[in-house]
Amino acid sequence: MSDKKELVEICHRVYEKGFVSAYDGNISVATPQNTFLITRSAVRKGEVTENDILEIDSSGNILNGRGKISTEFKIHLYAYSKRAEVNAVVHCHPIFATAFASLGEGLTGNYFPEVILTLGKVPLCKYATPSTDELPLSMEPYIDHAWGFLLQNHGAVTLGKTLKDAYNKMEKLEHTAQILLMTKLLGGANELPIDKVKELVKISKQNYGLDVDERNVF
Ligand SMILES: [Zn+2]
User: Fold this and answer.
1) Which domains does the chain have, with CATH numbers?
2) Which residues of the chain have pLDDT under 50?
3) Active-site residue 72, yes or no?
4) Against a cut of 0.70, is the pTM above it?
């Protein structure tokens, strides 16, 4: 499948999952030519076609495609410039994750083994005005290692080695936020004891084939 086709599919999926409404969100993927494919602005993600995807360079200049570049392209280019292993970025406004972001709480507790292994801590990035240079800079304290970010009073960002990876991380992030909210309603969640978290990280390579970055766990 071409990158463009896959990008269109992921756009449709974030809309179907309710991670965005109306024109919300933007998604991008790096190409082998060191350029980036990104959704144009003002398009419903559920209705995106290949004609709504722009090819841009690392400075945000449009190389191919018609329409205005997504307002949050700076988040995407910032992530690519800071992390060589990142090849895709997904930005959405999922309801449960954005509720935590608006409360001013990151998803940083160690509650669920699979989340610890695949997503890690999701820090809260201080509120910054959308579309400005301030917004990517709000991610600076965590950009070296985190795969998921909550943007205060705004939404969420996930990074991935591939488009599917970035999408899966967004789905996992939102699912985690939803479970945590339910658990809070039931009286509060219990974090895993630290020795159990350490044990999980210790076996992650051998049992799951995962390289867990300890900065995302402890
Ligand atoms: Zn946004």
Assistant:
1) 3-216 (3.40.225.10)
2) none
3) yes
4) yes
